[in-house]
Amino acid sequence: MAQLPKGEPAPSDGRITKLFDSAQHSFHAYVHIPYCLTRCGYCDFNTYTASELANHRRDEYFEYVLKEISFSREVLAASEVIARPISTVFFGGGTPTLLAADDLIQILQGLRSTFGISPEAEITTEANPDSVDESYLEKLFEAGFNRISFGMQSAVPEVLKVLERTHNPENVEKNVAIAKRIGFQTSVDLIYGTPGESLADWKKSLQVATSLETDHISAYSLIVEPGTKLNRQIESGQISPPDEDLHAQMYEMVEQVLVEAGFRNYEVSNWARGVDSRSKHNMAYWQSQDWWGYGPGAHSHIAGNRFWNVKHPAAYAERISQAISPALERELVDSDNRVVEKVMLELRLVDGVDVQWLRSQGLAGPKIVAELIADELIEGASAISGRMTLTPKGRLLADAVIRKVLEF
């Protein structure tokens, strides 16, 4: 399971060191639900199965999140950070829909009563295709949820088996159709580059995904994380490692198939049918807005403070019960680091980064820009008109472009 980053100890009272005025930043909420029925072999997210959580009651989890919501409002007031209505809410995990619909609804109502939620807010939950039905989705929609992201990963049973995904592929189509009929915006998540997955397998998954006529598709390259079962299988020779050249071909196929189906890329790994179909919550991350992450292992970013909660649900519950901040450590993001983060995050977006701003920071001089254009990594016409934006080839090599711009 992924390790938390290293930082300085977070204050036990949660107090925020205000590095800038948040008045011009929107405010968002992420709610982490740390439960899964089984652990997928590739996953290093902060999730737990029932057998890993002795003496822990899942049906009480929402009560601890509600207490953290109240605590967060108190922290913002004590830190003189302006409280704003919430612009987006995202329930992630884990599998949020393993909780009863009423539990998710109570958390949403807690956010609404504590901060207020903007009338046009995007309110999303991730869902396993096997863990919802029409009644469940109707309850969420009536309570204000308006977007749902299904973990599809692949349409090929053999690929799902390698990933140890246990859902029935037919339930993806069924529940996407139900969600659309109810009125949700819909999205599916795909993973490419699974060991043994062929280009034909990947094309089938893309064709099935586009046939669902969702509003949004995310396609992520499989990363073999240290400590996962998949990593151990590769190191022991049971499974062949992913092929980087094949990954590149698969990414090119994503762009081709999705564009033909009416999608447009707006972030390296994300495609939407239109601007209104983009994930507003994820855009807030990429644009370095303010958000509070609730739940064990959740990360927050407020007024230049990054902090992250203790990982284990039991440790989280204990701190919340004692009215102690669940935050374990924090990092204060100074102005220099904010420049680096802006480049690293915004260059991944379709609108890119302002060239004049880059030069005002001593970055991306004319020679570097010319080299990136010559290498077909950034759009020449866009750069000339003042925006540095990645080409499809540049998206494949986004990390290298970012290093070039930042010169490290």
Report on this model:
The chain has helices at residues 61-78, 101-115, 134-143, 157-163, 169-182, 199-211, 229-235, 244-260, 280-286, 313-321, 335-346, 355-360, 366-374, 380-384, 392-396, 398-406; strands at 8-9, 27-33, 86-93, 117-127, 147-153, 185-192, 216-221, 264-267, 270-272, 290-294, 299-302, 305-309, 327-332, 353-354, 387-388. The chain has 16 helices and 15 strands. Strands 8-9-7-6-5-4-3-2-10 form a nine-stranded mixed β-sheet, sandwiched between helices. It is α/β, with parallel strands linked by helices. The protein has two domains: 8-286, Aldolase class I (TIM Barrel, Alpha-Beta Barrel); 352-408, no CATH class. The model has no long low-confidence stretch (mean pLDDT 94). The protein starts with 7 loop residues before the first strand and ends with a helix. Helix 6 packs parallel to helix 8. Strand 2, helix 1 and strand 3 form a beta-alpha-beta unit.
